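Troubleshooting log. The previous run stalled partway through. Resubmitting the same two chains, unchanged.
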Amino acid sequence: MIQDYIQMVDVIFDTDSGKTSVWLFDLEKFIYIRMGSVIKLPLKVDQPLPTTTTSYECLQTGQKVIRTVGAEVLGVAYTGVAYPIRENGVIIGGIASTGSTERENALKTLPSLSKNLSESLQQVSAALENIANSAQALSDAGIALSVQSGEVNDKAQQMEEVVEYINSVASDTKVLGLNASIEAARAGEVGRGFAVVASEIRTMAISSANSAKDIRKIIVGIQGLVSKMTVELEKSGGHTQEVSAAIEEIGATIESLTGEALQLAALSENI
Amino acid sequence: MDEMKHFIQFKLGLDDFAVEMSCVREIIKPVSVVQLLGAPKFVQGIAKVRDGVVTIIDLRKKFVIAPTSEGEPRIMIFESSKETEKIGMWVDDVVDIIESNRIEQVPAIIHRGTIKEIIKTDDHIIPVLDINQLFTDDVITWLGSENIELTDELTTVQDKNCQEEML
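Second attempt completed without errors. Output:
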């Protein structure tokens, strides 16, 4: 009796957690149908077997029939399998099932996918290392710049000392010129020529002093710029540190991702 | 046109003054000054200049002129007939030598004749100190007296208040 095989339908159906559709048929019609969650075919109990089905074909040929149906029919690719059932050598009906081939395909692609994932993660890791090196170089350059701006400041300081000296020479010269003028005036008519020289010396001293004053203003300007630069450098140093910290975090994440990708690859091999 | 005369323009505080150049013996940078006990406030003290001793006076103290850090302080040493009577005057800056014939006379009552005349320049006027007059006995006595200082006036007012309270 074909009805004796109903339980087998349930066994197969439950084995695949209800994903696969399984049904039993006699020589003319469907007897028992468990429709799975993935492939849903419009089959009904007591419905005569359509001639296009694997069920019909296996009854005709007396052989098992396997047919793969593309995704264009039901939106999902599936494989239909039908077996004839014999009793005492005579075909009394058959059992058939359909299973999605998506999983099959997925399992085929999974190893290569997880391998790709691993490789990509390695590339990201390498790129990240480059970024980390660059950030380090940036930080080093910032420190070097800080040191150099300090040196510029020192040089400006030295320059100021020189200017201070020039200024004191100019100031002495002015006194000298004044006294020379006084002496020239005392000499009367004969000192007239010398008075001109003394006056020139005074003029020169005054213009030297003015130049020294201008240079000092420039030095103060340089020092102001250097101190601004130092502030900016400190800011940029802070940012570089933040970048370094972020890179470190990303690195840790990538590392754990790489481990997971490896586990995935190992798992996919075992399925 | 009057004859051209030479003056040395200098500063006491921020104010400009001048002296006739012929009065000035020399100009020196500030030197260390030895204080004289019992001397009036306007006498800074005495200083060794070359081989002589010069009395340094500071007119700012007398005329309540605020000192300034602008300019280069100098001591202007005046001509003197007697070697021991050399006087140097502290100034806040020696500006320049000016040549002028635009001179204006001033009434003799001003500062007991310590201002000799006034130079008119293009944009302002500069009083010329009469050095010979400035260091005569009666002017020195007047400089040394306390009667024109602002602090004295305050003291007087306070004294008055004290007296009123006592009454």
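Takeaways: The two ends of chain B are 65 Å apart (CA to CA). Chain B has one domain: 5-166.
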